[in-house]
Amino acid sequence: xxxxxxxxxxxxxxxxxxxxxxxxxxxxxxxxxxxxxxxxxxxxxxxxxxxxxxxxxxxxxxxxx
Length: 65
Known about the structure:
Elements: E1 13-14, E2 21-22, E3 27-31, E4 34-40, E5 47-53, H1 56-60
Antiparallel strand pairs: 1-2, 3-4, 4-5
């Protein structure tokens, strides 16, 4: 399972409709256990949301001692 990293920004995600790469998400929302990304394709004007879900216990563990 992927770890949540607030410095990570996905890039070049393929459009869910036409497959052309989208440079970066239009909107990002973080909440406990999940991050939502809104993607808009400039080629075909299709909009879709992708959600990354993280285990809550994994987020509660300290990053460093």
